[in-house]
Amino acid sequence: MLKIAKYIILDIVRSKVLLAYTLLLLAISLTIFLSDADVTKGLVSITTVILIIVPLVSIVYATTYYFNAAEFTEMLVSQPISRRNILLGKFIGISSSILLAFFIGVCIPVCLFAFSATGITLMISGCLLTLSFISLAFLTSTITRDKAKGIGLALMLWFYFSIIFDGLVLMFLTLFADYPLEKAMIVLTALNPIDLARILILLQLDISALMGYTGALYQEFFGSGIGIVFSLLMQMIWIIVPLFFALKIFKKKDL
């Protein structure tokens, strides 16, 4: 498993796409911090970038690489290697490579210019968000054998979690505005890894007052120790559950 991961890491590190992703994140982070002396504003701007670019690149790149390495996967399957080790080796290799790009592009600038509790939360949330969408990428890749369908499904998932989900939540709040929705909102938030990351970072920035009543609710729950543990646990579930189902499908899949 680790040998497979090592080979994949060495292969991806030479990728121009990953290099471009790293340089893009680094350029954005440095530009934001150097152009504004207010660290808080810089972290808010970087948060916006992380919540859009990181999930998109993670799920699309992981899906594309998975399908491009189909022949390599078939060769591994013909060897006396368990399918579990093959898939987990690929997951570790791809995840490590994309996380390295995130570390260089975002974590290093944050450590240099805004090393604080908020900066640490931003870095941890970005890493968990990356792993969540790579896990979703593996699920979409194992469901179908067609590369175009796999990438299309990956893009649909990103579009749903980034845009459609918030629209559905807003519609839900409008339709049931006369009912107490405190617990329901916490449950709905847990159903979207992007929202979990967004709320944790915004609460650390202490600007939840701008979010009105909802912000007060999030501050009360997610601002507590139990809320932070709950959020981190749910983000871990978003990593483990899709990967579990991907592994289950891959074991039975006819390559």
Structure explained in plain terms:
There is one protein chain. The protein has one domain. The radius of gyration is 19 Å and the shape is globular. It has about 260 residues and is mainly alpha-helical. The protein starts with a helix and ends with a helix. The protein is about 85% helix and about 0% strand.
**Major sheet size, sense and barrel closure:** none
DSSP strand (E) fraction? under 5%
**Domain unit count:** 1
Element pattern in H and E: HHHHHHHHHHH
Topology:
Layout (H helix, E strand, L loop, with lengths): L1 H12 L2 H20 L3 H30 L1 H8 L5 H31 L3 H27 L3 H29 L6 H9 L2 H12 L7 H11 L2 H28 L3
Helix pairs in contact: 1-5, 2-3, 2-5, 3-5, 3-6, 3-7, 3-9, 5-6, 6-7, 6-9, 6-11, 9-11
In brief:
With 255 residues, the chain is an all-alpha fold.
